[in-house]
Amino acid sequence: MNNYEHILVAIDESPISYAAAEHALELATAFKSKVTLLSVIAVDPFVGVDFYKIAPAITEHFMKAEENALARLNELKLSFERNDIPVQTKVVHGVSPSEGILNTVLSDGISVVFMGSHGRTGLEKAVLGSVAQNVLNKAKVPVFIIKQ
């Protein structure tokens, strides 16, 4: 039985998430795993969702964020396809990054997660939280954290 049958790679705009994708590619090649590349476009938790429906500038911001996320995912997808790895891309909206990752683990039958850690500390970690820490604590599957 392949313990790494379906790999989830969490991708954001950081170079560390690209490093996580490289590690996932190595594992997927070795174990002939399928891969899902995921980006989460989160709603700012400090502002009500209704605000976004009426503010054209914010709506445009989210549309641009999704466009950029899809471009990143499709660029990375090519690396997996060149290595004959079955790969799909997925964009999730309206939840925190850790919720998006954890929900995808459950809904898509993920067996292992790869993600980068930005290494936030102190006040920045207290205010923004640590996506990697949340996923590591709550996921029921192995989580590989790639550090800067």
UniProtKB/TrEMBL annotation:
Residues 4-147 form the UspA domain. Its main location: cytoplasm. It holds the Pfam family Usp. Keywords: Cytoplasm. One of its GO terms (cellular component) is cytoplasm. It is found in: Cytoplasm. Belongs to the universal stress protein A family. This is Universal stress protein. It comes from Acinetobacter wanghuae.
